[in-house]
């Protein structure tokens, strides 16, 4: 008797956005990709937090400016329910402060509100594969705002290679794509990232990127 082929695992997405037209548009875009399924969408963090879908969701697309509980504050609550979630913030350029707070609370990336369909799909896939999708325009704005506060910056003695790896993390690259970019093995990239975590005194990629932004260590192209 022939063994049945296992069905490919779909990337499970939950959307939290108060604009119904945007919710519908993102759902249509993501559901059109054969590797992604949008199980549910909500207009507020409060509504989403009542859903049982959070326990099995892989990715949350979370708007920052929401009625009631702000998306930046909702990040921690979602992660308390499902620590394995990858949360991508959706925002506008003026939200530098809330973006940084979202990263500190555990979000792994952020995209501009008017993200293109292809960018949205790729961001979800990158996040699922361990990347940190971030729109360069927003990243530059956050970096600029943090550089206005030099008294907050510290020296962490990162090598030039470690700064390069951290910058590539900040651009949303996975370990594999960083390895290709700087001509190292994935294990070699992992070695540098462990050193970065130790020197920055962080335990996750999101924390490393957030600290890199706040201390002017990340230089995006």
Structure write-up:
With 221 residues, this protein is an alpha/beta fold. The protein has two domains: 11-143, Response regulator (Rossmann fold), CATH 3.40.50; 151-214, Winged helix-like DNA-binding domain superfamily/Winged helix DNA-binding domain (Arc Repressor Mutant, subunit A, Orthogonal Bundle), CATH 1.10.10. Helices cover 48% and strands 13% of the residues. The mean pLDDT is 83. The chain is globular, with a radius of gyration of 18 Å. Strands 2-1-3-4-5 form a five-stranded parallel β-sheet, sandwiched between helices. The protein has helices at residues 20-31, 45-49, 71-81, 96-105, 117-128, 136-147, 160-170, 175-182, 186-200, 205-214, and strands at residues 11-16, 36-42, 59-63, 86-91, 109-112.
* SSE string, helices as H and strands as E: EHEHEHEHEHHHHHH
- The overall pLDDT, averaged over residues, is 83
The side-by-side strand order for the widest beta sheet comes to 2-1-3-4-5
Q: How many DSSP H or I helices?
A: 10
What structural class do helix, strand and pairing data support? alpha/beta
Determine Rg (CA atoms, Å).
Answer: 18 Å
Supply the CATH architecture of the largest domain.
Answer: 3-Layer(aba) Sandwich
Give the helix proportion (percent range).
40-55%
N/C terminus separation? 55 Å
CATH topology of the largest domain: Rossmann fold
Give a short summary of the structure.
With 221 residues, the protein is of the alpha/beta class. It has ten helices and five strands; from the N terminus they run βαβαβαβαβαααααα. The protein has a five-stranded parallel beta sheet, with helices on both faces.
């Amino acid at each position: 008797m022939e063994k049945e082929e296992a069905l490919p695992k779909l990337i499970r997405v939950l959307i939290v956005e108060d604009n119904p037209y945007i919710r519908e548009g993102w759902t249509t875009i993501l559901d059109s990709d054969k590797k992604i399924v949008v199980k549910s969408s909500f207009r507020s963090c409060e509504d989403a937090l009542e859903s049982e879908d959070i326990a099995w969701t892989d990715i949350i697309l979370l708007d920052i400016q929401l009625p009631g509980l702000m998306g930046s504050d909702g990040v921690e609550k979602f992660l308390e329910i499902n620590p394995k979630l990858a949360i991508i913030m959706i925002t506008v350029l003026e939200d530098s402060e809330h973006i940084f707070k979202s990263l500190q609370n555990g979000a792994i990336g952020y995209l501009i509100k008017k993200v293109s369909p292809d960018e949205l799909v790729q961001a979800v896939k990158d996040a699922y594969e361990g990347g940190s999708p971030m729109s360069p325009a927003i990243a530059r704005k956050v970096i600029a705002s943090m550089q206005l506060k030099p008294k907050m910056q510290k020296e962490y003695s990162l090598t030039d290679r470690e700064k390069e790896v951290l910058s590539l993390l900040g651009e949303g690259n996975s370990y594999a794509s960083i390895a290709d970019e700087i001509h190292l093995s994935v294990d070699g990239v992992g070695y540098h990232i462990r050193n970065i975590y130790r020197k920055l005194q962080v335990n996750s990629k999101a924390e490393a990127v957030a600290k890199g932004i706040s201390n002017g260590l990340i230089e995006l192209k």
